[in-house]
Records
---
Amino acid sequence: MDRRTAIQRVSLILGGTVVGAQAFLSGCATNPTTESIGPFSGEMIALLDEIADTILPDSPGVPGAKAAQVGPFMAMMVTDCYLEKERQTFLEGLRTFQAKLKEQGTPFLEMMPEQRTQFLNELDEEARVANRSIKEQRQAYAKDRTLNPPIPHYFSMMKQLTILGYFTSEIGATQALRYVESPGGFDPCAPYEVGDRGWAT
């Protein structure tokens, strides 16, 4: 199963209501190399790949986010599917990310895995604090659409796109999750043992 097939099947399950599904599918044709995508240079995409791979690294028998080409996926999603303000927040966040690294004097690509994890954990805490008011802003926006929609911290966007990109990729759906091409009837009481992988289908 490839990503295009997975998204088509999810769309069918949801009655064809996946917003921006066509954009997802057209993005699947993108050559996931270090070519630029929209405002993202090849270097920026390579950095996104490494960030994603630090969030979801290789585990025994299962490749991580870099192998699933989550970096190009993030660039495609931000370019084709995000609103302009969200896109600018993400891009400005990526510039801030690079500026923080420059202050520390060690490029992310040259950090040891433990250093990368520590750096992202600090950024995650920063995002958690920044997102505290998001819930209230969402409630206010739901009541009054003339307000500006809330935009989460850029690192929260990176995490969300990493999870979405990974688990809709072939690697994520078939190796990190359990995938059965023809699952058959609905079984609401499938047995689960602690440590079992979740189901992609």
---
Amino acid sequence: MNAAWRWSRENLFSSPLNTALTVLSVALLGYMVPPLLDWALFSADFRGNTREACEGEGACWVFVRVHLPQFIYGFYPEELRWRVNLAFLLLPLWAAPLFWRRMSRKGWWLASLLLLYPLCAWTLFRGGVAGLAPVPTSDWGGLFLTLVIAGVGMAAALPLGVLLALGRRSRMPITRAICTVFIEFWRGVPLITVLFMASVMLPLFLPQGVNLDKLLRALIGVALFAGAYMAEVIRGGLQGVDRGQYEAAEALGLGYWRQMGLIILPQALRLVIPGIVNSFIALFKDTTLVLIIGLFDLLGIVQAAATDPRWLGSATEGYVFAGLLFWVFCYGMSLYSRRLERRPGAGR
């Protein structure tokens, strides 16, 4: 009891201003939380299969429950959704050895994860080989498509950002100029323009007979866009590494890439973990922009379901559900970044 009172005095009532803010916060919570709980839980409808089943004044969660498979998989054929589940199950299994401290050759395993896993996942998703029925990317959607776009963007942005950041700090003028122009070009346009160009303008410049998939064009645009922003974050980390570390790396007689890979980059990346995660979170949320080129991510699927005449008036529940999913993923990334920052000896 004494400990609770002492904590309250130190954190909630330490000054007149903090006391006033605490009282104001409690009043706001008392004003907002009871109606919210009543709408979301006590007066909500959970059972039924149609809009008519929602007779109460609260939320109609029946809408979310009925459309949940569509929110997760989009228009992916129901009998083939096991391929999506298998591909996403493979990812943690493939990545698990990287978290085992005694494992050697983590670099090779990480390379296999970055190079081979995307091929396996794409094969399972798309099909058309090894007896797997083909599923066009136009049928992909929902949370599945959101994770694909965000995952590819993140996986490509980090190595591309490292190369561009090193290139921008290179002593070779041509390399430095090319990387600088590339970064500033992609940072100078909004993502919505990049997606529009990838969807509408890029096919006009391709040779006759060459037709890249719309999703593939969007993935390339997202990866290049995210890579440019990531490069500037990593460049900040490189500038934050003490000059003595560069001199010590040169004194060891290591080559350029070994200096960067073994000494400089681990420290630089650790310095900018919050910035890297911030870029990943921004990219995850920006995936909703693919709706403008006809790809139905989670938010797009929710919007499409809410316009169904049979479910008019249920849009709020759908958007609340989508917002909660986005919050879970973004907050999860934030928690993991904090854990990495606190990890003893990380990057040293």
---
Amino acid sequence: MSLLKRVAIAATVSLSLAWAPALAETHVTAAIGIDVTSTDPHKISGGGEYLFFSNVFEGLYGHNLDGSLAPQLATSYTVSDDGLVYTFKLREGVTFHNGEAFGADDVRYSWQRSNKPEIKNPRASIVTKKISDVVVVDPLTVEIHLPKPNASMIENLGEFFMIVPKDYIEKVGDDYFSKHPVGTGPYKFVSRSINENIELAAFKEHWGRVPGVDTLTLRIVPDPQTRIAMLQTGEADIILNVPPHQAKEVGADPDIDVVVNPSFQNYFININMLPEGSPFRDQRVRQALNYAVDKDTLIKRVMFGFATQSTAPCNRGVIGCDIDRKPYPYDPEKAKALLKEAGFDFSKTYKTFGLAPGRAPQSKEVAEATMFYLQQVGIKTSLEFLEYGAWLARLRSKDPEFALFWQNWTDYNADPMGRLPRGITKGGTYSWSDLPEADAMIATADSITDPDKRRDHLRKLFTMLYDNPPWIILWTTDEVHAKRSNIDWQPRANVSWPVFWKLSKH
């Protein structure tokens, strides 16, 4: 790593929402691995879509470039003594990209729209479904009423309750809005060519985060070698997800900087516990899978050091993830013994699937390597790879034909409740788990408003998920990107998608 021209962002980030570089007539092209599946913020299907939404839309509160909580379309809030009413003062003078003024009516409308059955918002359950009413007090004040306390609500407002323009959507309709989105974010939507590019323009009337470029093109280029070639020739100014094994080589070019960004992105092999009679319902089998894989070696040889082994199904920076456990060690003999004790059927071939390159670095290589290790303890598997959209569809389908699959999970912020209900609770959108005791603890986590008691509760939950693992727990990755040296860019830490608020070209 010392040979890399590494741009470390974590602790030294200077965070100022008032950052506003000198404007210039400049254009930047960023080559990204996947296209989005939606440009409507109430129809988010997967984490990849945030590369669009986090640049074009905003919530009442969101996160700074270091991942810390910060006001966005609100400036402050107070909470009633019973924890059931949050009163937000809204930011004055904010306009949507079409020139319409932002106000309290838009907040109430966004809540209503997010929950409309015909919108089919796959993430409404995280915040908006937990709200009983949004009351307009005056044009710049709203009250959010809750039927019961929700300790994670403020942290999740930015990612799961994005504000859309009431008057515009009522005029043009939902379908038109989905293809011609209008938000309040630092960039405004210009055009989109599916699987080719998304054109954005800096929103120079933004209340505090005006980009230092005029226009930004997001070019969809799934092949990482092509992205690297585009950067080397100057066809692209920024590329995302440099393969870890090529970071050193890419950074050796004097005109290119490698950008390493801390991430809350977790890699793991999900285990299908749902079919009755499946051997993977046995806790001993799932522990055996964790002992069977040599994570240390994979981090060195597949991730080239751009990862940190996890002790639980979460990033250590997430609330409650600092459990008193060490990661599962590599112990194939213990794995074999546990499998034998559990009466595992070694005669079958277990179907698995992975994610094709583009969304996450080394997704293909990691899936292949883990299946190799499983074969070393006698577990036979077949493996196929799917493009991002097809992979998401199968993930949601919970096809009982598949026993295992590669998956990544990004904790959107330091509060785990944006993910746990959907990723672990039985019946959750992305859950293939069946762990009633964990489900009960997840169900009560948001009702605990005392921060210390809530952290203890979450520690017990993650400890339980270590002992009775729903996944083969692998690691948390660093994001590895690259840019031309004439580009100043600071992505946001602790997520797995890029933001381009702080971007300029010289």
